[in-house]
Amino acid sequence: MFGLLLLLCLPPALGAVDFSDYENGYQVRLSIKTALGDEAYEWNESEMFLFRATIAFAMRQFTKTEAYGIDNIVVRNQTQRVSFWFIVTSPENPAQTVEKETVEKAIRRSRNRINNAFLLTDKTLEFLGIPPTLAAPISPATPPWLIVFGVVIGLVCAGIVALLTSSVVKRRRGNKAKQLPEEEDPAKGTDKGITCEDRNGVYNQGFSDDDRLTQL
Amino acid sequence: MEKDARPSWDNPMQFVLACVSYAVGLGNVWRFPYLCQMHGGGGFMIPYLLMLVLEGIPLFSMELAIGQKMRMGSIGAWSAINPYLGGVGIASVITSLYLCLYYNVINAWSFWYLFHSFQSVLPWAECPVNANRTGYLEECEVATATQYFFYRETLNVSSSIDENGGMHMGQALCLLLAWMIVYLFTVRGVKSTGKVVYFTATFPYVVLFVYLIRGVTLHGALNGVKYMFTPKLEQLANPQTWINAATQIFFSLGLGFGSLIAFASYNHHNNNFERQAIIVSLINSGTSIFASLVTFSIYGFKATFNYESCLQRMRLLLLNTFDMAEDTITLDNIDYWFSELNRTHPLQFANLIPKLETCDLEAELDTAVEGTGLAFIVYSEAIKNMPASQLWSVLYFSMLLLLGMGSMLGNVTAIITPLRDFKVLARNFSNETLNGLVCLFCLLLGLGFTTRSGNYWFTMFNEYGATFSLLFIVLIEVVTVSYLYGLKRFEKDIEDMLGHKPNWYWKIMWAFVSPLLLISLFIFYIVDYIRGGTPTYQAWDQELGKSVVMEYPWYGQAFIALLLVSSVCCVPAAALYAFCTKKQKVAPPREHSISAVTGV
User: Fold this and answer.
1) The complex's ipTM?
2) How many distinct structural domains can be found in chain A?
3) Annotated binding site of B for Na(+)
């Protein structure tokens, strides 16, 4: 993708190509070894034959005629990179080339089929000048995050409700028990005389000893 | 009068775990590694550990002692120590309130990322396609996919603090969930908190350990670890290093918020807090170092990945320009080919120069990030390149959540405990209702951070809400305990609780070293504020795809001033109030209450 953009910026004077023939042509670049690694196939005449056949197929699909044949796809300037230029000639008049826009539309429509024929992707089989058609984003009806969110918040709500009801129940039970005569801890309430309120009536808890009330 | 027994921890282990869970928070993961990188890698340990010994452990222990002795939250405890200094407690509560408001927003973000990890392709791994499906969205092209996801899809951030927008509904929902979970964990006070901390304190370590194994086995991780641990000892001469070490220890331990006092107030009278203080402080610092090991292996992986992608791009550029077969140039011989092609095709090569990038591993490693940028952008970028990235993403954001939740427990307890100490509130509201009201209040105010400009307000609170006030509060605390209350009386209290007096180390630190350190930090902060000029913030520029520095508008600066002043001025205001009300009464009660504190 980046290579594609970079090369678009390159001044046209690079490479020893006569561009006057190819204003309706496209440059193609294949990166077979990058895509397939050890399982890369050799680029030879048969592969080129397949390429021309797929382009002819794309033109046929687009124009909905059976006019296009292998001879209508003319290839020039093959390099070691595995890049070359091709033009599509009109079936009625082989001297005339088909418009660039038509070729582009045809290729875009059948891009997936062309890629698959060579086990390549949009990035590794580049048509310079034809932007790739990116896959439409799959937007499910409910975003998946909302589902997980719903589950978690449901659990938290259940937890809170459970805790609150258990404490309400406990308190109600406690209230019922209070109606019976209370058994008091004799130490409670008398404070063993430590409640030294100062003259202003402020109960300073800093010195109160309520160890006996802790549970450890 | 009949008093309900003060609730307490089921066992001392719960208390220790609660302190660990509170102290070990997001700062250990996203601030310490940054400081380590900035200040000379392994060499930063020296000032860090020194500051731990000089101020961290003594101040931590002091707060625990106060809480355990007074058995009240911060307001009650400080009023008991000195009736004129109840304002210190109030300042702590206000600072905790500010912290609660914005800290839970981070948890909301963690939830958002966590829920979005349950997809086949992580949403921050790829840019979304544009309308006619020919390319990616422009904003995403200019920035990176992870930055786009954070700034646009998570925050939907506006371009400056002036532009408010609507609330982000997803964020608001996540914030609601975060507060509901906080409520669930604290609804019954220490009874519920005590059980939760078993999990929130220990699970992050499990995840960190798993990440450590994953991290060091990643390709290129060792580059990062080597870079971090290579000490650059010349940084020790930089005073900024020492200042940052001191502030990091200080803020990392969570001093001054009143949470430690609150937690310790539920302790048994004879709990050995001294030993626990040392243990928790060491665990906290150890976790920081451990987390930075993980962070740096991730950094190393990310830097190596970026470096190799850069080399790949250059290789493709050369191949495409000179139409060479694919296997002639590999990453190993690319340098050779650079010079070779320059020699053989000088004209073509010259045309290529504007597109050439210099691929530099050191430069990639040098990009140090801290804060939310590290946690949500850098880490997610590294995670998306790992195999089985959904699993790692879920693990990582759960860890962030637990670290954040653990700290939130402490923050909320710091607010609720002093409130419950007021008899009026305790009598009329049950535990559950009071906690619910506090959580609801914080939730409603926190919704402001989920608006489009919310991230800028968040940054403001993060930088100004708690930093300066805490230094002030803890300085007053340590000076009060050492000089106003008296070190002798404090010693006697500790002997009463522990059975032995604190030894010379504690006394020297409390009386001299920590106050001196705090005063110098305080002065440094003031000088820095004055010299810094107009406060600025980083705003996200949509067109450029990066953050730009902007100044706060007048109301922003006024709000900063309000944040600082509102907590700090509680201390003199409460002292004045106490002075005025005491003057109205007949006899001076001051000696009476102080002598009564030490007597039993």
Assistant:
1) 0.82
2) 2
3) 23-24, 28, 252, 284, 403, 407
